[in-house]
Design a protein that fits this description.
The chain is mainly α. It has a domain at 30-78. Helices cover 73% and strands 0% of the residues. The longest helix is centred in the N-terminal third of the chain and has 18 residues, at 13-30.
Length: 79
């Protein structure tokens, strides 16, 4: 007799959604380091301008929150 599961395979439920909602902003914030390193090696006015616009929320956090020092330290590790 075949055993049928009541839960669909591949379904992660609320934990998967929570993980996605938390990981996306963290990955976005952490990506500023590698992007800064690329911008330093290949400076192009349009590329740097686009990166500044894309990371405007991180710049705001740097300027208006307690994350100023951690963001600076992380960014300087890459650049």
């Amino acid at each position: 007799m075949k055993h049928e599961s009541t839960q669909e395979s591949g379904s992660s439920g609320p934990f998967g959604v929570w993980l996605f909602v938390v990981l996306i902003p963290i990955c976005y914030m952490l990506s500023i380091g590698p992007v800064g390193a690329i911008a330093k090696k290949r400076p192009s006015a349009s590329w740097v301008d686009t990166a500044r616009k894309f990371y405007c929320p991180v710049t705001w956090l740097h300027d208006h929150s307690f994350l100023e020092k951690p963001i600076e330290v992380y960014f300087r590790l890459w650049v």
